[in-house]
Amino acid sequence: MNPIVETRGLTREFTVRAGVRRTRLTAVDALTFTVEAGEAVGYIGANGAGKSTTIKMLTGILVPTAGDVLTCGLRPVRDRRRLARHVGVVFGQRSQLWWDLPVGESFGILAAIHRLDRVAARTRTDELVDRLEMGSYLGTPVRQLSLGQRMRAEIAAALLHSPRLVILDEPTIGLDVLSKQRLREFLIEERTAHGTTLLLTTHDMGDVARLCDRVLVIDHGKLAYDGTLDGLSRRVGVERVLVVDLTAPAPDLLDIPGTRHLGSEGGGLQQRLAFDAEHTTAARVLTAVNQRVEVRDLSVEEPDIEDVVRRVYAGSRR
Amino acid sequence: MAEPVVHQRSVGPVARLAPYRAVLAARVRAQRSYRSNFLIDLGSSLLVGFVELAEIWILFHNVHVLGGFTFVQILLVFGIADCSFAVADLFFGHCDNLPTYLRAGTLDVFYLRPQPVLIQLITSEISLRRLSRAALGVGSIVIALALNDIDWSAARVALLVLAIVSATATFAAMFVWAAGLQFFLVSGAELTNAFVYGGRYAATQPAAVWSRPIKVVFGFLFPMAFTAYLPALELLGLPGPQWLPAGLAWCTPLAALWSWGMALGTWRVGMRHYQGGGG
Amino acid sequence: MSPNLLPYWKLFVAGFHQQSTYRLAAFGGLVANATFGFLKVAVLFATVRAAGGRLHGYDLGVMSSYIWISQGLLGSINLTGRTDLADRIKDGAVAVDFLRPIDVQVANVAADVGKAVFALIPRGIPSVALGAIVVGMSLPSTPAPYLLGALSLLVGITVSAATAYIVATVGFWLIESRGVQVLYMVVSGFLAGLFVPIALFPGWLSAIAAATPFPSMMMYPIDVISGRVAGLSALGLFAAQLGWLAVTGLIGHALTRAGRRKLEIQGG
After folding, report:
1. What are the backbone dihedrals phi and psi of residue A89, each rounded to the nearest 5 degrees, phi first?
2. Considering CB atoms only, which of B6, B15, B29 is closest to A124?
């Protein structure tokens, strides 16, 4: 079976003009990786690290400066139109829907664009509308939708033609916790049902943890890590942070096993404890805290993508 | 691994156009839903057309013959040029929205669809408000044909039809050429406007008044003289000025082809620049 | 400088600087001016020649001055209206402007005039220079027309800014002020003498034009600078401009106050 994505030494340089001076900027630097059919890959990196540029080269928008890329076995720039039938992309802020038309009409137009069989298109649209719970706003113009509603519509639009590869650029950004959860569940179901390959760029480690079996970390255009999320955690020592609000100020909790005390506020009223998710759980830490003080409220912070990336990069420089 | 759920139809000639029809139909519906705005736009388009015609009329009000033409005769030139430009504007006028798409990154969405990018740009919108201006143009042609003493023959009828079709094609090419250049120019719309809308203006003039440089630019490079002036010369049985004899009127289709060649070439170079290909 | 005037001066200067960033746009504008300029030269010169070399005070030289000065003024005389201000009025952002201790009308007009005066440099001077060099134009040889012309131009620019301001304020009462804006765009250029000199208008049309502020914006300053109208007649034109400045200023002031009251009643 051919890989869905195959890159070899993929490079993209830009010339940036600042006044009279011209500098050559390398946005993507000799990327080499392969994605097999059915995989779910998280593509993470800081802003400006080269994620969007990579996606543009995978889909045929940009021509690589050097190196090769094959998407679904096709050369993206040369066979762009053929490739478009097999790839669905939700691309950041750029909407694929028609702004002032009702959502349902956008789907109809897209079905015509992809030359889908009318009956099959109807079935597919109904399926997507049902599972993404869009029925209530099918008649609303896209510009009047909330962000969460729009993202669901964008994803449906990208999946309408049942592509083999789905590329999602920051699909859960700005969504509330419940919407994120529902969206993740939908993507998992979709992959199970159709074996779609998923390439996901995100700043949300929760997305990566729940959706992806593999992680690619890109930093300053270079591939800094390619492997499983567990491997990444182990390599980098990914920490989550438990933030506890106590009923009364207490001295710093420095002796909770498996934790690092990050700081406290309000004279000990709120305390932050970092713990390695590999070695302990939030529940265990909370139990230990409860044995010492009374907790009024708590929250758990996920590791920052920037933080992870920075550590990977720092680690690779050692 | 599951196969794709939906099967794609085999593509016959009419079916090929289905995606474009779908988008255009949606745009038409959208415009008609903004009722009052649309009516205002229709009215203003018509008003602009009248003002342009008034400009010409005022000149002829002061001198009765200009460039070998009387007002009634120049009305034919104006009619053919304005009607054709309005129709071209209707279908292609929005192509100069390209800078907006480029800045917002929405052009990339075109790349993600299984269709040529240029055709998507062209079919992305339709400016129905130009209909009123086209009506003004047609009205001018009708009145001009009625008031002028034309020696009608089958050839002359064919030439009139050919002229209108070629003129529309030529103006359409101008819009596409302008769009292609936008890949290189940042806020460069005024530069291309000079030749697109300046070209329209030139097309309504009696080209006998043109200096040599203008004859080169708007006679042959952007062949505006071929759109309405030369056909009018031939229809009215008038001789042409130096370098633009009436007989050239039959070359309007060539002018349209030349314009489209230039337009498509510019577009290709522009796209290649956008995608960073070709060094 | 008096502290009352200082904010307006600063706005004027800010408007001045804002325009300096658009260099390619300036070049594009020059190309546009040149293209339309040469086409107008072709048609209008032929008209003058067909009239025997002199038409309503225009000979070829004066006609050339008219063409190139009018093209050069395109960036400075507001013939398209103030969509930015209209949008601010439509979405209510203008309420913030009313809270500031400066007069909204004067502030807007001052900024507009600043921009316009600056635009004379990349737009006005090259067009006139191009025309003078390539085509030739006849300009007065005494300093008086230039002095009066400069004043006339400044007043003309201000009248156009003030009138554009009035059109924008209509947005306080009309929800869709688009129709008015579009009408303004179409009519203003024509009656300001942009397409053909007003002197060529038939009698009834020039009467209509004289009843509007538009000729004061562009036609009169051009007439004075080019020397087509001189002496007492030129002073007469200038007086008419001042009259229109007063009228548009007062109307704008009244509309601003009424609009502000409307916002306050509505609750802003």
Report:
1. -130, 135
2. B6
Q: Which residue of B has its CA nearest to A94?
A: B106
Q: Which two tokens stand for residue A265?
A: 């506020």
Contact (CB<8Å) C28/B55: no
Helices (H), chain B: 13-16, 18-33, 35-62, 71-92, 98-104, 107-111, 117-122, 131-147, 154-182, 189-203, 212-214, 229-236, 252-275
What CA dihedral angle connects B204, B206, B208 and B211, to 10 degrees?
-40
User: Mean pLDDT of all residues in chain C?
Assistant: 87
Chain C residues lying within 8 Å of B48, measured CB to CB: 186
- Contact: A61, B108; criterion CB under 8 Å: yes
Checking if the pLDDT of B4 tops 60, the result is no
Residue A126 burial by Cβ neighbours in a 10 Å radius (0-12, 13-18, 19+)? exposed
The Cα angle at residue B272 between residues B267 and B276, in degrees rounded to 5: 150
Answer whether C47 sits within 8 Å of B59, measured CB to CB.
Answer: yes
Residues with pLDDT less than 70, chain A: 1, 17-20, 238, 304-306, 313-318
- The CA distance from C160 to C218, in Å, is 9
Instruction: Tell me the residues of chain C between 176 and 195 that have a Cβ less than 8 Å away from chain B.
Output: 176, 178-179, 182-183, 185-187, 189-190, 195
Rounded Cα–Cα distance for residues A201 and A220 (Å): 15
Nearest neighbour of B195 by CB, restricted to C35, C41, C205: C35
In chain A, DSSP finds a helix count (H) and a strand count (E) of 10, 13
How far CA C221 is from CA of C124, C152, C215, C229, in Å, comes to: 13, 5, 9, 10
Task: Kindly state the DSSP code that residue B243 receives in the 8-state scheme.
Answer: T
Euclidean distance between CA atoms B56 and B60, whole angstroms? 7
Query: Mean pLDDT, to the nearest integer, of B254-270?
Result: 96
pLDDT at residue B2, as a whole number: 39
Written as six digits, the tokens of C143 are 């300093």
Q: What is the pLDDT of residues B188-197, one digit of tens each?
A: 788 899 999 9
> Under an 8 A CB cutoff, do B7 and A80 touch?
no
State whether residue C174 sits within 8 Å of chain B by CB: no
What residues contact A233, with CB distance under 8 A and at least 6 apart? A277, A278
Residues A62, B276: C-beta atoms closer than 8 Å: yes
Quick check: B14 contacting A, CB < 8 Å? no
**Which residues of C are less than 8 Å from B198 in CB distance?**
32, 35-36, 39
